[in-house]
């Protein structure tokens, strides 16, 4: 026979002002199975909890119902109190008298009656409760970081410094990401590579970090603490151990006119190449699509030149499987290409650049070695026009969101140009200036006031070539929309920041949510900014939203802290509120008929197949089995199951029916 | 194919050659054009700035006439007529109370089902036929000039790309011409200032022609009577403004297609242009 105790809380005035709590306690006292029922002003307070603990001992309670606020708020409090009194915590339930009653109704008898009904419902449920025990899962203390830009590097270093193993996977031949392409960084104008390359080298040298460049994640299985990742190591076509990075092969490669990705198409590279001089690792790859040997079957110059015999034409992609406990996604962004803007010259005019191209043009390691030369004829541009918001905040043709970094980098670009071409004219067309950040607004003011950059508020309608010049037509909205026409030598479009190619597929592979623009979605926009909805997978940098370097680094460290916190434990404890497939004695074994509808319905891939074998080892039956590590207790499988073979622990059919039958 | 036809005032007057060439090309492509019975002025240049009701009622009556004649689609070759008809139709469809009020004026219910088409939209459908029937390819470099009205505003027109339209270029290509990429495809020619402020027309149209010539065009192709008259009829003013003589001819796309289809230049109205456009036939 159940011996239930009911504890009705006033929650100060939250419940007490609307519901007659004393009456609720009174009429609950007569419910069969209830041996103790009291009300109190603040059940969650220390005296309130003590009341519960003492009642358990005094009355030998077998179940507890706390009629108070939302279980979201205080269920852990009361379960802990119950446990301290020696009762299994899952024999404690809460009736929500606040959100479900007092906050949504007027004061009155009916409201009090409803409150009493809610308590009765929970009493019936508790009678059917079973003691449950937390599930323990082991943790593999190795993290996988996807993306080798500054976000990935920072996250990897922080996790490695915390003493854990990290595998850093980068799809291009070198780590460094977009930051390695930048010339100087705002608002300090320090050289991007100067601050980045030490971190790259540190990541490469760190004993806890394994670098996998030119590699991509192929598959991910498992759950928090227990992922299994399959990584494709693309064939570099060289033996990395033998290669010393001397660069002879690169010098002698006859293919010299391949568009250089690192220089955003402004320079050329060879077919065997390293992306940039400070690349980490400093080992070349062969671009088989452009290599003479792979195209025509003849050449092999690099093999002849290599002093250590490191060239391996026959090398194939390799699949590596890794066990990891957590994942940090840091796959970064791309910029919208200028060919999205037909009115701005089709993206075909060589003197119309995007922001990243200008970075390369201004960079000391760029195709012009930092000299301001326009791509069409190498002349020094006398007038340069910068267009902010090209495709950003543009619902009709581009993307509606703000790309966040363009106001700042446009000011930086204009300054860099003015610093290199003192007599040159820099004109910025902008919608408004968004320079929120430490020393950011000062930076923009400096561009305007000290470096004489001309700012025009208004959009540009058209850019076209007129002989040697590009005609930029726009409006000055601070002068009533007066038409402005600038004859420029070069135009830089601050094009929208977009999610990286393939991020939709990657998100689906990892079961991570993403927004309509394919940026990965955080678990909560304010309070869980680095977590995803999949436990054990964290976010860092611009793969989540447009982001600048300081913010990216901060977020990467945040993600690393989450990983370190996870790895601080040897086992993970999980709430036992998960699905279970029933087991019966032979010959049924289970009601489960093995239709596996639940498997296709489960959003977390938590349903596995299990064979039930006879003594001779023959398979008698195949039934569903729930992986408690993956199950999130959503109940979709229960609704799908035709034979009612699955239950959510703590929410079994018997419990739910008992609740309903009370009303 | 049978289709309604709304010539509008300009195609009967200053732009007769557009009317002639549309009809000639339609006949050559087996397109049966049925003139909307008892049509009236669409109110193009002034009604919409003077009186919203009048601006809606005039097109509404035309569309009602078309609906009554059993026409599902109406071709309006003039860009301004086309724009007025579509705009008014959308205004009526969006606001039933207003539509009822206008119906009280016109005496006929709003014909929201009649689809209004511009000349490029119609020819676009016939592009394969055109390509198949070309006899004398129009082997010239051309600048296709759409003007500001034909493909804009996008929420009203919903045809082709508003900033960089392609339909006329593809038609010109089908006729064997070489359409050039150039800068002033959709710039304004000074449209309705043709009579009142010729100085503005000279300046704006001058820029358009200048850009076309610089791009290397041998002819400008248009699909709007106002563009054509400004670029052609105002050539002396344009030349005076530019300070040099431009002799580039301005043809309707239908004239270019007609020539490619080997139609009689006279029937295409080519002799009517101010700037000589009669081709030296290859």
UniProtKB/TrEMBL annotation, chain A:
The keyword Lipoprotein does not apply. Pfam families: FAD_oxidored, Fer4, Fer4_7. Keywords: 4Fe-4S, FAD, Flavoprotein, Iron, Iron-sulfur, Metal-binding, Oxidoreductase. Residues 234-263, 282-316, 583-612, 622-651 form the 4Fe-4S ferredoxin-type domain. SUPFAM superfamilies: 4Fe-4S ferredoxins, FAD/NAD(P)-binding domain. Its cofactor is FAD. One of its GO terms (molecular function) is metal ion binding. Gene3D superfamilies: 3.30.70.20, FAD/NAD(P)-binding domain (3.50.50.60), NAD(P)-binding Rossmann-like Domain (3.40.50.720). Belongs to the HdrA family. PANTHER family: COB--COM HETERODISULFIDE REDUCTASE IRON-SULFUR SUBUNIT A (PTHR43498:SF1), FERREDOXIN:COB-COM HETERODISULFIDE REDUCTASE SUBUNIT A (PTHR43498). This is Disulfide reductase. It comes from Mesoterricola sediminis. The gene is hdrA.
Automatic annotation (TrEMBL), chain B:
Pfam families: CCG. InterPro entries: Cys_rich_dom, HdrB/HdrD_reductase. Keywords: Oxidoreductase. Gene3D superfamilies: 1.20.1050.140, 3.40.50.11810. Residues 4-85, 142-232 form the Cysteine-rich domain. It comes from the Bacteria. One of its GO terms (molecular function) is oxidoreductase activity. The keyword Oxidoreductase applies. PANTHER family: COB--COM HETERODISULFIDE REDUCTASE SUBUNIT B 1 (PTHR42947). This is Heterodisulfide reductase subunit B.
């Amino acid at each position: 026979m159940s011996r239930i105790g009911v504890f009705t809380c006033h929650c100060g005035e939250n419940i007490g002002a609307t519901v007659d709590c004393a009456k609720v306690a009174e009429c609950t006292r007569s419910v069969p199975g209830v041996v103790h029922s009291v009300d109190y002003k603040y059940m969650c307070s220390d005296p309130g909890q003590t009341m519960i603990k003492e009642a358990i001992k005094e009355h030998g309670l077998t179940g507890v119902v706390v009629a108070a606020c939302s279980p979201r708020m205080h269920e852990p409090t009361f379960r802990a109190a119950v446990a301290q009194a020696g009762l299994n915590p899952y024999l404690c339930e809460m009736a929500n008298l606040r959100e479900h009653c007092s906050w949504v109704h007027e004061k009155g008898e009916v409201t009090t009656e409803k409150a009493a009904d809610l308590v009765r419902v929970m009493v019936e449920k508790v009678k059917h409760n079973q003691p449950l025990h937390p599930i323990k899962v082991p943790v593999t203390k190795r993290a996988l970081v996807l993306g080798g830009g500054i976000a990935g590097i920072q996250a990897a270093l922080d996790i490695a410094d915390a003493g854990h193993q990290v595998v850093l996977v980068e799809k291009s031949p070198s780590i460094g990401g977009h930051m390695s392409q930048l010339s100087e960084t705002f608002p300090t104008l320090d050289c991007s590579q100067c601050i980045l390359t030490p971190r790259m080298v540190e990541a490469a040298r760190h004993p806890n970090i394994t670098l996998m460049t030119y590699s991509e994640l192929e598959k991910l299985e498992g759950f928090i603490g227990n992922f299994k990742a399959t990584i494709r190591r693309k064939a570099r076509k060289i033996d990395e151990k033998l290669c010393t990075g001397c660069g002879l092969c690169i010098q002698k490669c006859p293919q010299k006119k391949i568009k250089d990705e690192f220089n955003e198409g402004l320079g050329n590279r060879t077919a065997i190449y390293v992306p940039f001089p400070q690349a980490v690792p400093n080992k070349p790859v062969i671009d088989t699509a452009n290599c003479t040997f792979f195209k025509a079957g003849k050449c092999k110059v690099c093999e002849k030149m290599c002093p250590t015999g490191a060239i391996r034409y026959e090398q194939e992609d390799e699949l590596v499987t890794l066990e990891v406990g957590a994942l940090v996604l840091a796959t970064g962004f791309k910029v919208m290409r200028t060919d999205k803007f037909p009115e701005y010259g089709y993206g075909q005019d060589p003197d119309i650049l995007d922001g990243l191209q200008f970075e390369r043009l201004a960079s000391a390691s760029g195709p012009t070695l930092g000299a301001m030369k326009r791509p069409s004829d190498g002349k020094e541009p006398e007038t340069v026009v910068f267009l902010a918001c090209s495709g950003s905040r543009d619902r009709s043709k581009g993307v509606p969101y703000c790309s966040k970094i363009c106001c700042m980098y446009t000011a930086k670009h204009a300054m860099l140009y003015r610093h290199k071409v003192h007599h040159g004219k820099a004109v910025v067309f902008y919608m408004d200036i968004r320079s929120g950040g430490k020393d950011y607004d000062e930076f923009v003011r400096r561009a305007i006031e000290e470096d004489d950059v001309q700012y025009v508020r208004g959009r540009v309608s058209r850019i076209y070539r007129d002989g040697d010049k590009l005609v930029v037509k726009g409006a000055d909205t601070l002068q009533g929309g007066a038409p402005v026409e600038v004859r420029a030598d070069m135009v830089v479009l601050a094009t929208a920041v977009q999610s990286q190619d393939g991020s939709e597929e990657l998100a689906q592979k990892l079961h991570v949510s993403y927004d309509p623009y394919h940026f990965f979605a955080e678990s909560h926009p304010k309070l869980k900014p680095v977590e995803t909805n999949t436990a054990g997978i964290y976010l860092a940098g611009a793969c989540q939203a447009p982001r600048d370097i300081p913010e990216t680094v901060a977020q990467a460290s945040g993600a690393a802290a989450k990983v370190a916190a996870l790895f601080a434990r040897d086992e993970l404890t999980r709430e036992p509120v998960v699905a279970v497939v029933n087991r019966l004695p032979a010959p049924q074994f289970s009601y489960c008929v093995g239709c596996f509808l639940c498997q296709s319905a489960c959003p977390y891939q938590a349903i596995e197949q299990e064979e039930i074998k006879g003594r001779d080892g023959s398979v008698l039956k195949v039934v569903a089995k729930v992986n408690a590590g993956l199950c999130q207790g959503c109940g979709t499988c229960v609704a799908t199951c035709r034979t009612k073979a699955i239950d959510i622990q703590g929410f079994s059919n018997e419990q739910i029916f008992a609740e309903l039958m009370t009303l | 194919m049978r289709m309604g036809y709304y010539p509008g005032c300009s195609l009967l007057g200053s732009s007769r050659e557009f009317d002639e060439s549309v009809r000639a090309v339609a006949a050559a492509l087996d397109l049966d054009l049925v003139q909307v019975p008892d049509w009236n002025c669409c109110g193009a240049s002034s009604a919409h700035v003077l009186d919203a009701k009048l601006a809606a009622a005039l097109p509404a009556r035309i569309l009602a006439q078309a609906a009554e004649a059993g026409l599902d689609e109406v071709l309006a070759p003039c860009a301004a007529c086309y724009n007025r008809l579509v705009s008014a139709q959308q205004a009526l469809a969006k606001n039933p109370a207003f539509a009822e009020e206008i119906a009280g004026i016109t005496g006929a219910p709003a014909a929201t089902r009649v689809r209004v088409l511009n000349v490029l939209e119609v020819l676009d459908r016939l592009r394969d036929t055109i390509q198949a029937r070309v006899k004398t390819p129009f082997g010239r470099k051309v600048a296709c000039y759409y003007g500001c009205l034909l493909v804009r505003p996008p929420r009203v027109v919903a045809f082709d790309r508003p900033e960089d339209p392609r339909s006329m270029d593809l038609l010109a290509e089908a006729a064997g011409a070489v359409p050039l990429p150039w800068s002033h495809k959709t710039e304004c020619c000074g449209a309705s200032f043709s009579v009142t402020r010729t100085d503005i027309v000279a300046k704006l149209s001058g820029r358009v022609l200048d850009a076309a010539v610089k791009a290397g065009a041998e002819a400008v192709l248009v699909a709007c009577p106002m563009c054509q008259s400004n670029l052609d009829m105002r050539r002396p003013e344009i030349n005076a403004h530019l300070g040099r003589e431009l002799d580039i001819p301005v043809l309707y796309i239908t004239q270019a297609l007609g020539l490619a289809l080997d139609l009689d230049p006279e029937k295409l109205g080519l002799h009517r242009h101010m700037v000589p456009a009669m081709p030296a036939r290859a």
